[in-house]
Design brief:
The protein is an alpha+beta fold and 399 residues long. It folds into three domains: 19-132, Acyl-CoA dehydrogenase/oxidase, N-terminal domain (Butyryl-Coa Dehydrogenase, subunit A, domain 1, Orthogonal Bundle), CATH 1.10.540.10; 138-246, Butyryl-CoA Dehydrogenase, subunit A, domain 2 (Beta Barrel), CATH 2.40.110; 249-393, Butyryl-CoA Dehydrogenase, subunit A, domain 3 (Up-down Bundle), CATH 1.20.140.10. It is 50% helix and 14% strand. The chain is built from ten helices and nine strands. It has helices spanning 25-52, 59-66, 83-96, 98-118, 121-132, 248-282, 294-323, 328-353, 364-376, 381-393; strands spanning 138-141, 157-161, 168-179, 186-193, 196-203, 209-213, 225-235, 284-285, 288-289. Strands 2-3-7-6 form a four-stranded antiparallel beta sheet, covered by helices on one side. It has a three-stranded mixed beta sheet with strand order 1-4-5. Strands 8-9 form a two-stranded antiparallel sheet. Helix 1 (25-52) runs parallel beside helix 3, helix 6 runs antiparallel to helix 7 and helix 7 packs antiparallel against helix 8. The longest helix is centred in the middle third of the chain and has 35 residues, at 248-282. The protein starts with 24 loop residues before the first helix and ends in a 6-residue tail after the last helix.
């Protein structure tokens, strides 16, 4: 019969598979730097920001200094880090809150990627250095009140104003659920033209643009999402992103964001699990710690299984991305699986916390509420299911 002396000590209860051994020293250093930032600057204030429905704008330049804005982009004072390093940063930031990771995603994976990939040299020089520093905030205006999962149905239009090379544009329409729009210094706006979907840069203060924050949210409360109205907005020819034609433009950016989500969701899941584990070890019921009961241990084990599998999946996607071989259906695989599992983990973690778990003193239910939004944006479960379904059957079932 074994005794306590025979039981091996727990090294890292969040990494039973020793996945850290798959990371390079440089990758581990990046992760620890972002983890320290999250512990010191995000976790102490997140309950208050969430309760007050406030996004801490003062974090923007700090995140720029941290090197996570446009982290995967090269040149123009962007950090130029690897896909795996960016993924690790997303995971650590979302362990703090999905709203903070979403800010980094909207800024870097969406707005900055659109300019970096599709913009002119003048546009890149004008915006990217300041966005990388957090001095200018960007937003990415694609979703509309009646066009979410089907952006080809967008009704926002841009029509030519004049003829020749000096012709400008007139923009009319509406967008919804646009992160950071009310505080953005520049909007990346996608609109239908006679040539198909095109992208435009709309600087803050442009006449005819109204951005209104969406209130009464039950999710992503420490974040900003807006309705935008465009009413006869006059734009010069320099507003057009010259390299983007058709839906390939915005979809390229969406895939960058979806990749980061596959990592970030595991951060929310891990933080939920760790909160439940600690609580179960400290909380006494019927004279012993909750962690000593079989039902609690089963919940914790099931959570850990999915966190470790999801982290391995995210890391595999990161290695593929760094090798230049990552495909859209693989990104859908990661986004669909990891967000779905993270939401289940956050809910299960809350159950271990009992009644205390419905307060902002503990993170799991906040993570669960946020993950309902993460599950919806950048492609719903249904959209990613259909992407994978089309890939494995060869039959499109979207229409």
């Amino acid at each position: 019969m074994s005794n306590a002396a025979d039981i091996p000590a727990v090294s890292d209860p969040s990494d039973v598979l020793a996945l850290d051994a798959l990371l390079t020293p440089g990758e581990l250093a990046v992760r620890e730097r972002i983890r320290d930032f999250t512990e010191q600057r995000i976790k102490p204030g997140i309950a208050r920001w969430y309760e007050d429905a406030t996004f801490p704008l003062d974090l923007a330049p700090e995140l720029g200094e941290l090197g996570v804005l446009g982290m995967h982009l090269d040149g123009y004072r962007c950090p130029g880090r690897s896909a795996v390093e960016y993924g690790l940063a997303a995971m650590e930031l979302e362990a703090g809150d999905s709203g903070i990771r979403t800010f980094v995603s909207v800024q870097g994976s969406l707005a900055m990627t659109a300019i970096h990939r599709w913009g002119s040299e003048d546009q890149k020089q004008e915006w990217l250095p300041r966005m990388a520093a957090g001095e200018v905030i960007g937003c990415f205006a694609l979703t509309e009140p009646d066009a979410g999962s089907d952006p080809s149905a967008m009704t926002t239009v841009a029509r030519r104003d004049g003829s020749g090379d000096d012709a400008g544009w007139v923009l009319d329409g509406a967008k919804r659920w646009i992160g950071l729009a009310s505080v953005a210094g520049v909007m990346v706006v996608w609109a239908m033209t006679d040539d198909g979907v095109r992208g435009f840069l709309v600087p803050a203060g442009t006449a005819g643009v109204t951005a209104t924050p969406i209130t009464r949210k039950l999710s992503m409360r420490a974040s900003i999402q807006c309705d935008i109205a465009f009413d006869g907005v006059q734009l010069g020819p320099e507003a057009l992103l010259p390299g983007a034609l058709g839906l390939r433009g915005p979809f390229t950016c969406l895939n960058e964001a979806r990749y980061g989500i596959a990592w970030g969701a595991m951060g929310a899941a891990r933080d939920s699990y760790e909160a439940a584990l600690k609580y179960s070890q400290d909380r006494l019921q019927f004279g012993r710690p909750l962690a000593g009961y079989q039902l609690t241990q089963e919940k914790l084990v099931n959570m850990l299984l999915e966190i470790q599998k999801g982290t391995m999946l995210a890391l595999h996607l990161g290695r593929l991305k760094d090798a230049g071989t990552l495909r859209p259906e693989q990104i859908s695989f990661g986004k669909l699986n990891n967000v779905r599992e993270a939401l289940a983990i956050a809910r299960e973690a809350r159950s271990i916390l009992g009644g205390n778990g419905i307060t902002l003193d503990y993170s799991p239910l906040r993570h669960a509420a946020n993950l309902e939004s993460v599950r919806t944006y950048e492609g719903t479960d249904e959209v990613h299911t259909l992407i994978l379904g089309q890939h494995i059957t060869g039959i499109g079932a979207f229409r």
